Amino acid sequence: MIPSHPDRAGRLLCFLCALLACTGCAPRMQSVQLSPDKTGFVLQPSGERFIPWGHNYGSVDLMQRLRTDPARVQREFADMKSYGTTVARVHPEMPAFFTGPDTIDPVAIKEFKELLKIAENTGIHLMITGLACYKIKNRMAWYDALDDPARWKTQELFWSTIAHACAASPTVFCYDLVNEPVAVGKRSDGWYTGPMGDVEFLQRLTLDHPQASTDTVFRAWTTRMVAAIRCADRRHLITLGMLPLPDMYKTAAAQLDLVSPHLYPSAHKVDAEIALLKKFNFGKPIVIGETFPLSCSAADERDFLRQSRGLAQGWIGHWPDESPAQLAQLQKENKMTIAQAIWFSWTELFKEMGPAMAGTVPPAR
Question: At residue 277, what are phi and psi to the nearest 5 degrees?
Answer without folding.
Answer: -55, -40
